[in-house]
Amino acid sequence: MDVSCWDGTLSLNEFSRAARTFAEKWKIGNSAFPPWLWVNVPKRPFVASQQVDGFLSLENICLIRPSKVCGAEVSHLEEEETGFSEKEVAIDDATLVLSNHHEMHYYDFHIVYSASYRVPVLYFRGYYSDGCPLQLNEIEKDLPACSAKVLLESKWTFITQEEHPYLNRPWYKLHPCGTSEWMKLLFLGEAALAEKRVAIELYLVSWFSVVGQVIGLRIPIEMMNDRTN
Amino acid sequence: MEAQKYVWEGAIPLQIHLNESEVTTLPPPPPALILAPRIGYLPLLIPLIKPHFAATLPPGVDTVWFDYKGLPLKWYIPTGVLFDLLCAEPERPWNLTVHFRGYPNNLLIPCEGEDSVKWSFINSLKEADYIISGNCKNVMHMSQFDQLELWHSVMNGNLEAYLRTSSKLKFGIVEDEYTLKIDLCSQKSRKTTGEVGMGGQMKTGKIPVRLYIWSVSEDFEDFEDMPKIDSWDKISYINQPIEIHREEGKCFTLHDALKSLMPEFLVDKSLIDEESFRLEGEDEQVILSEDLSSNRMAAEGREISCQSVESTCTSGAAEIKLVRIQGIEPKLEIPFSWVVNNLKNPEHFLHICVCLKFPQVNSLDR
């Protein structure tokens, strides 16, 4: 499909394919992290079987408070392990100050397809180790300093609290109404470098390169560069 | 548009009881009797309800929520839809319990009165805008004053004011397929390649729809005997636009519309058997246990047992037991365009409550 007449959106089937590509590249490029897993939407036997309805899930991620430099250090804590493995991202000791007042904050991230906007939507929630939910003001403190600013000022990435489309619980989400616009710009930019075609399987990789920054999960360059797969 | 007038005038008589644990006086206050507009929302009734109970409430800050037979009610769903969904046999008056304390934050998103409801309404309107015209510009470009006027017309049930203000949104109405319009004839049903319709806007030909489905496994003589919905997990919520497919000389009916969202289960049994063999296998899918809050994930690489889901359904098509829209049960042969134009809610979504009966199946294993 030619980029110039593409509207920046994708179908549910394209989302499923893009999700698989994203998860594979993440596993290869971000091996220090746990993988994104595909969750089938439960108990909906009457959705057309050709349409695989589901979402990507990354759960139990610990976001340590951001250091003074923009960009959060992220690590994953395995309950079974006694310490960080060598593969883990190097952590600035100065940020790892856990006094009694500083509880670890855990996050769940779901990438869900919106049939209305025809784009992926990032849903997330934060909680303490006892499972008590984090309020938005506490979550904002965990976000990279510059993204908090971006959030408040941008019309394209703002957080709203809404019900998770499948789980009947309140979650937070990054509002999707600007996504198709900036995805189109993103692909137009990339198309200038490569072919003019839209490689729809790479949709989520590109999408996450923007969205991930807002929440402090960075994509390594390797994931973006490999376009031959 | 007579029907639209009836919809706007429609109301549910409520009998609102104060939650027992919040009654601090004897005798306990009698329930409040309120007429709730169908197209309205429960939190908007609080100014009418509170004075009734103010004297008995324990001290503290109000965080108001409602429940029906123990089920906390989602406040952003229009009152009429809640009633159609949760009362298979309409209960008049509808007995609800109001709480002023102990908001279930783990289940319901917070509600800070009218502002939250207004925000939710405008947000849905933007979503409808996006579905209908491909972007949110119609709503975004509405002046604050007009947005407020639109919202107030909904709060006050003022259809005249609503029609006046919402015409500025240029959503238009769904064209009756028997009306010849040049631009409609030239439009194909797939709009994603950027065709431009009337007024320079990209018309997607899609209708914003919210479908609420619950299922039963046997026939019931009376709706009264149906199992109660005691958890939102028993309801499948599908928020998905419906695309109207126009065919020469054929009417796109309500049944056609429902079928497009639930294609496999409203067809003949013989067709289902055929389709199960044409199933495209997805290579590697992860199957997770149904307890999504668990952090244990199954190993990757197992082929999805879509086949086994298929097999539960090939034994028989689901039957539509009930379709309810704005409190009425329309015949499924009615043109979908009529249903949309007359029965949609003010935020331009058509809310449909459906009860499906699935035949009893024994096991998932084949």
From TrEMBL, chain A:
<protein>
    <recommendedName>
        <fullName>Ubiquitin-like-conjugating enzyme ATG10</fullName>
    </recommendedName>
</protein>
<keyword id="KW-0808">Transferase</keyword>
<dbReference type="GO" id="GO:0000422">
    <property type="term" value="P:autophagy of mitochondrion"/>
</dbReference>
<dbReference type="GO" id="GO:0000045">
    <property type="term" value="P:autophagosome assembly"/>
</dbReference>
<keyword id="KW-0072">Autophagy</keyword>
<comment type="similarity">
    <text>Belongs to the ATG10 family.</text>
</comment>
<dbReference type="InterPro" id="IPR007135">
    <property type="entry name" value="Atg3/Atg10"/>
</dbReference>
<keyword id="KW-0833">Ubl conjugation pathway</keyword>
<dbReference type="Pfam" id="PF03987">
    <property type="entry name" value="Autophagy_act_C"/>
</dbReference>
<dbReference type="GO" id="GO:0032446">
    <property type="term" value="P:protein modification by small protein conjugation"/>
</dbReference>
<dbReference type="GO" id="GO:0061651">
    <property type="term" value="F:Atg12 conjugating enzyme activity"/>
</dbReference>
<dbReference type="GO" id="GO:0005829">
    <property type="term" value="C:cytosol"/>
</dbReference>
TrEMBL record, chain B:
<dbReference type="InterPro" id="IPR048939">
    <property type="entry name" value="ATG5_UblA"/>
</dbReference>
<feature type="domain" description="Autophagy protein ATG5 alpha-helical bundle region">
    <location>
        <begin position="114"/>
        <end position="170"/>
    </location>
</feature>
<protein>
    <recommendedName>
        <fullName>Autophagy protein 5</fullName>
    </recommendedName>
</protein>
<dbReference type="InterPro" id="IPR042526">
    <property type="entry name" value="Atg5_HR"/>
</dbReference>
<keyword id="KW-0072">Autophagy</keyword>
<comment type="function">
    <text>Required for autophagy.</text>
</comment>
<dbReference type="InterPro" id="IPR048318">
    <property type="entry name" value="ATG5_UblB"/>
</dbReference>
<keyword id="KW-0963">Cytoplasm</keyword>
<dbReference type="InterPro" id="IPR007239">
    <property type="entry name" value="Atg5"/>
</dbReference>
<feature type="domain" description="Autophagy protein ATG5 UblA">
    <location>
        <begin position="7"/>
        <end position="100"/>
    </location>
</feature>
<feature type="domain" description="Autophagy protein ATG5 UblB">
    <location>
        <begin position="206"/>
        <end position="354"/>
    </location>
</feature>
<comment type="similarity">
    <text>Belongs to the ATG5 family.</text>
</comment>
<dbReference type="Pfam" id="PF04106">
    <property type="entry name" value="ATG5_UblB"/>
</dbReference>
<keyword id="KW-0813">Transport</keyword>
<keyword id="KW-1017">Isopeptide bond</keyword>
<dbReference type="InterPro" id="IPR042527">
    <property type="entry name" value="Atg5_UblA_dom_sf"/>
</dbReference>
<dbReference type="InterPro" id="IPR048940">
    <property type="entry name" value="ATG5_HBR"/>
</dbReference>
<comment type="subunit">
    <text>Conjugated with ATG12.</text>
</comment>
<dbReference type="Pfam" id="PF20638">
    <property type="entry name" value="ATG5_UblA"/>
</dbReference>
<keyword id="KW-0832">Ubl conjugation</keyword>
<dbReference type="Pfam" id="PF20637">
    <property type="entry name" value="ATG5_HBR"/>
</dbReference>
